[in-house]
Amino acid sequence: MAVRIERGELPLSPAVREAVEALNVACFWDRGSEKVDFLEQRPGSTVWLAWDDDELVGLKWGATARPREHHSHHGMVAPSHRRQGIASALMREQHAWAEAAGHRAVTTNTFHAFRPMLLLDLQHGFAVVGVIAHDGDCKLLLERPLGDVPWPPPAAIEGPGWVANGEALIAALRDGASIEGVVVADGGVSVRLTPRSA
Ligand SMILES: CC(C)(COP(=O)(O)OP(=O)(O)OC[C@H]1O[C@@H](n2cnc3c(N)ncnc32)[C@H](O)[C@@H]1OP(=O)(O)O)[C@@H](O)C(=O)NCCC(=O)NCCS
């Protein structure tokens, strides 16, 4: 299967918008029309689309958050096309474009409920840099600097129940742990984990 990745023109044409809304339904059971309206109007809005022939099978959509920071708001791959590297390809395209456009970092947010996306982000160099309460849930704030920056950051504090970002965090999450907090200090970041419940 040859999937091609293209930058989408904004505003979306009616046909592409229809395809984006159908992909939202396949992934989130919702057309996501309000989110599409919101994202089309954000400054620096940039969408990457993955096509299998004329079928839209994935997207990655971000916009400028703060000066020189591209925030990735939305990403998904059709259930029929997962685990084939399509989300990774979209992310590589997004990050290369953001760096060439002069951004210093890409940021994103996610939740434990989206563990595949969290693992994908961590595999592509994001680090968890914050946790905030959101609607009774734990919103995870992630950042990936662009360019030649030493990353992920080292541990801020060490001890049982804490890990640095990077391989140790990925391994713990694969083992079923959850993130319950983050400490940022002295140029380092440590993530507080709750182990998998027995
Ligand atoms: C998250 C998502 C975009 C991944 O798309 P994908 O094209 O299957 O991802 P890739 O094939 O590029 O996977 C790259 C890595 O991500 C991680 N990953 C992806 N899916 C995973 C899963 N189901 N379980 C665990 N890790 C997963 C793995 O580390 C994987 O590497 P590997 O295949 O070598 O193990 C897709 O599962 C999806 O659309 N989910 C629903 C939408 C969603 O949750 N969006 C995020 C809202 S914040």
Distance between the first and last residues' Cα: 41 Å
CATH H-level name of the largest domain... which superfamily?
A: Gcn5-related N-acetyltransferase (GNAT)
Strand fraction equals 35-45%
Q: What class do helices, strands and sheet pairing give? A: alpha+beta
Q: Work out the helix count.
A: 5
Question: What do the pLDDT scores average to?
Answer: 95
| Unreliable segments of 5+ consecutive residues | none
CATH class of the largest domain: Alpha Beta
How big is the Rg? 17 Å
The CATH architecture of the largest domain can be given as 3-Layer(aba) Sandwich
How many strands appear in the DSSP assignment? 10
Bound molecules: coenzyme A
Account of the 3D structure:
- The protein has 5 helices and 10 strands, in the order βααβββαβαβββαββ.
- It is of the alpha+beta class and 198 residues long.
- The protein has 2 domains: 1-103, Gcn5-related N-acetyltransferase (GNAT) (Aminopeptidase, 3-Layer(aba) Sandwich), CATH 3.40.630.30; 110-198, no CATH class.
- The strands form 2 sheets. It has a 7-stranded mixed sheet with strand order 1-2-3-4-5-7-6.
- The longest helix has 15 residues, at 14-28.
- It starts with a strand and ends with a strand.
- The model has no long low-confidence stretch (mean pLDDT 95).
- It binds coenzyme A.
- Coenzyme A is lined by residues 27, 75-77, 82-88, 110, 114, 116-117, 119-120, 123.
